[in-house]
Design a protein that fits this description.
2 copies of one chain form a homodimer.
Chain A (H helix, E strand, L loop, with lengths): L22 H18 L11 E9 L2 E4 L1 H10 L5 E12 L6 E11 L6 E12 L2 E12 L2
Parallel strand pairs in A: 1-6
Antiparallel strand pairs in A: 1-2, 3-4, 4-5, 5-6
Organism (chains A, B): Tuber aestivum
GO cellular component, one term (chains A, B): cytoplasm
Pfam families (chains A, B): NTF2
């Protein structure tokens, strides 16, 4: 388990860095994404629920859900036994004075015993809260063709 | 030219709709994206600069720029004569009480006289301002392979 979750000792200091593309935001986003994919690729996807809040929103393909319970249920019910995400690109921007961070990830995803990875794109909006971050927005799309 | 830019009569009413996945956000995002790609695919890309502000940030592949002038210069200097974006998926979420909107687009892009489109993903963070929206964050990545 990295320092991002659930230790919560990490301090964002986001708004001070708004004027530039601070490496800090990329560091937070990378740490978050590493934890997120390790958890969703692991044996207990329900562990992801700690990063959502009652007003958090998730779009997974054409399905949209809101709130910790609905998001957790959706993640657990995904009809895949094995997942393996590999990040190809990760870009992060500060998204305002609040210290929030917008993250765009593109990558490849191996599903169950398929030999060929599926490309995907995922966008997260991370919001600071008490020295750590939660996920306000999570949009996932497979890239077909 | 649609109603999104530059007429500015459109009223967001974003925060009232925060509790649900209001169609409104998708409508704004669709209208914005339609205008954006029509403009960047057109003969004068500099017209895009009206949607950025001094603190706006753009990542185009590995290049990061900030501010209207730098973003405009980057857009104009892209080494492509002809572009043709086709949206495959567009998802939009309200991104907080401020009425901001997070948009994730996946699509295909024909560059110059290439016969085969290139897949891409693009994330926008749209922020309400005086009855219209500006782009705070713009992250673009081609999807290779």
């Amino acid at each position: 388990m990295g320092r991002f979750f659930p230790v919560g000792l990490w301090c964002a200091g986001g708004s001070k860095l708004m004027a530039g593309f601070a490496a800090n935001f990329v560091g937070v986003a990378t740490e978050f994404a590493t934890w997120y994919y390790k958890t969703i690729d692991g044996t207990d996807r329900s562990g992801l629920s700690v990063v959502y809040r009652p007003h958090s929103m998730m779009t997974f393909e054409t399905n949209q859900v809101q709130g910790v319970g609905a998001i957790k249920e959706k993640l657990i019910s995904l009809p895949f036994q094995k997942l393996n995400h590999q990040i190809s690109t990760l870009d992060a921007h500060p998204s305002g004075e609040s210290g929030s961070i917008i993250v765009l990830i593109t990558g490849q995803l191996l599903i169950d015993d398929n030999e060929h990875p599926q490309k995907y794109s995922q966008c997260f909006h991370l919001v600071p809260e008490g020295g750590t971050y939660y996920v306000l927005n999570d949009i996932f799309r497979l890239i077909y063709g």
